[in-house]
Specification:
Largest sheet: 4 strands, antiparallel
Helix content: 40-55%
Number of helices: 7
Order of helices and strands: EHEEHEEHHEHHH
Radius of gyration: 18 Å
Number of strands: 6
Distance between the termini: 28 Å
Strand content: 15-25%
Shape: globular
């Protein structure tokens, strides 16, 4: 068993209700901290599970059992160069050099705010690139992809989240192995 840390951003419950936090505890979110910030319910999990798929799926099921509507997972799938440095422990200067192509080729292009100084990148794409360049573990790259796939499934209201995650991650892991060889 491993402990996976992530947050579920949810809505649909009154944070002022007397039983607000208790609903989550009774639903199986006893490994989470519940808060309400900026109009959203934040359920911060430290969930023990055999896999990231099991952790994400069980956390979503428990959050929904509490009566909340799951909007997305975090950590945020869009990251700035500073965010990348913070998540990886690499220096901001090293990440900037990677992004400019000064240290290695083919760093992922930004996906949002392309024309601004604070461009945003897909964390899953960056994590895969960093894994290929031996700067991030395979496990961290898989977790980044799991959050990306889960968010896409949540957004499209995919009824079989667990199967979608398993299938996508199996394909993704095979791709990582092929590219690493």
């Amino acid at each position: 068993m491993k402990t996976f840390e992530f947050s579920i951003i949810a809505s649909g419950l009154d944070p002022e209700a007397d039983d607000f936090a208790d609903r989550f505890f009774r639903a199986g979110c006893d490994d989470a901290t519940i808060s309400f910030q900026k109009g959203h319910i934040i359920v911060d999990f430290a969930r023990e599970a055999d896999s990231i798929v099991a952790a994400i799926c069980s956390a979503i099921e428990c959050t929904e059992k509490a009566g909340a509507h799951v909007n997305r997972l975090e950590p945020d799938p869009l990251v700035s160069l500073s965010d990348i440095a913070a998540r990886t422990g690499l220096s901001r200067a090293a990440i900037t050099n990677y992004s400019k192509g000064d240290r290695a080729d083919s760093f992922p292009s930004p996906v949002a705010r392309v024309t601004s100084k604070t461009s945003l990148y897909s964390w899953a794409a960056v994590a895969a690139w960093l894994f290929q360049h031996k700067q991030l573990s395979r496990e961290e790259a898989v977790e980044a992809e799991a959050v990306r796939v889960a968010n896409a499934a949540i957004e499209s209201r995919e009824p079989r989240l667990r199967e979608t995650l398993r299938r996508s991650l199996k394909t993704y892991e095979a791709k990582l192995e092929k590219e690493a060889a």
